[in-house]
């Protein structure tokens, strides 16, 4: 057994994964949009799990306020581009995978090109305009989408199977009326909550890529860190959804 096989042996020993599933990961491409609290945690586990190609897009630079929850960065990274720092760090953690940084705010066509090339997209952004566009492009290009959010002591995530062309989408869950919801800059956030959601997003992505069935397709998983409780809510598909109907 070579070093690469040993690296993934605990994961590949799972009956649901096996050598075939590990090879599926090696042959896959995941697009991670947003390298903040959610994205750094998700990217960490996608890279170390052996996802063959990981593309990280973020237009921001590392800020000191990011450090308590954005686990790939340190003080020496302040003012450096998040996408590049994250890519460099993940490439060191697992040299067997290819990690590409895509800096800057992508326009519609550039983002569409990245979505079309990916097997799954992880939406780790923090605003509705970005999430609506990502959802729309995933629907258009039939690319599966995992979306997550974290604020205060609360988190949520969903898996949308745009690759199947049926079921609800993110636009069925939130519309323009929800656009005034606050972000973590104004409301605050407990760092590990972002990590919890990011890890769950990576779990859903790895399940999808290896063919493990998920109970979160077209559903919303809601986590309350204060009580330690979580619940799953079915997302109804809107008859007049501008994206999926």
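Q: What amino acid sequence fits the structure above?
A:
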């Amino acid at each position: 057994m070579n070093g690469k096989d040993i690296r993934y042996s605990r994961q590949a020993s799972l009956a649901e994964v096996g050598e075939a599933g590990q090879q599926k990961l090696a042959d896959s491409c995941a697009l991670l949009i947003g390298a903040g609290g959610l994205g750094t945690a998700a990217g960490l586990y996608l890279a170390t799990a052996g996802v063959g190609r990981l593309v990280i897009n973020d237009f921001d630079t590392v800020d000191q306020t990011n450090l308590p929850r954005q686990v790939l960065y340190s003080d020496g990274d302040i003012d450096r581009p998040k996408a590049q720092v994250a890519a460099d760090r993940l490439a060191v953690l697992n040299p067997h995978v290819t990690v590409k940084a895509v800096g800057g705010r992508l326009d519609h066509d550039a983002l569409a090109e990245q979505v079309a090339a990916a097997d799954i997209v992880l939406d780790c952004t923090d605003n509705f305009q970005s999430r609506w566009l990502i959802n729309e492009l995933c629907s258009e290009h039939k690319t599966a989408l995992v979306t997550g959010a974290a604020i205060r002591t609360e988190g949520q995530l969903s898996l949308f199977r745009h690759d199947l062309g049926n079921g609800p989408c993110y636009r069925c869950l939130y519309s323009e009326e929800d656009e005034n919801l606050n972000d973590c800059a104004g409301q605050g956030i407990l760092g590990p909550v972002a990590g919890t959601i990011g890890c769950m997003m990576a779990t859903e992505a790895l399940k999808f890529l290896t063919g493990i069935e998920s109970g979160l397709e077209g559903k919303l998983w809601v986590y309350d860190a204060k009580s330690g409780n979580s619940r799953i809510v079915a997302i109804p598909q809107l008859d007049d959804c501008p994206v999926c109907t």
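Q: And what stands out in the fold?
A: Strands lie at 29-33, 53-58, 98-103, 120-123, 144-151, 154-160, 219-224, 229-234.
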